[in-house]
Design a protein that fits this description.
- By secondary structure, the protein is an alpha+beta fold.
- It has a domain at 47-81.
- The protein has two helices and two strands.
- It has a two-stranded antiparallel sheet with strand order 1-2.
- The longest helix is centred in the C-terminal third of the chain and has 22 residues, at 60-81.
- It starts with 18 loop residues before the first strand and ends with a helix.
């Protein structure tokens, strides 16, 4: 960890916009600020979310066709499962 005093994990909401942020950390002693550090944080999409996002923006026509096919397939499957 180098010369760091502590390490922590922070959970961000899933809908946070991608981009660069600055985290400001304050050291308090008896209610007074005795130290401060700024740390850059880069937020990027990853996993399935990133794949869907990139597909929709790089190949919009193919993404639209796949979305329609999946919707039709799901509707057909639901109809077959819930037939009387």
């Amino acid at each position: 960890m180098g010369e760091m005093l502590f390490k922590t994990a922070i959970n961000f909401p899933s809908d946070i916009p991608s981009g660069n942020y600055i985290a400001e950390i304050y050291l308090l002693s008896e209610g007074e600020i005795v130290g401060m550090q700024s740390t850059p944080i880069t937020v990027v999409k990853s996993g399935l979310d990133a794949l869907i996002y990139l597909s929709a923006h790089q190949y919009p026509a193919a993404y639209g066709v796949v979305a329609i096919v999946l919707a039709l397939g799901a509707g057909w499957l639901a109809g077959r499962l819930f037939q009387r």
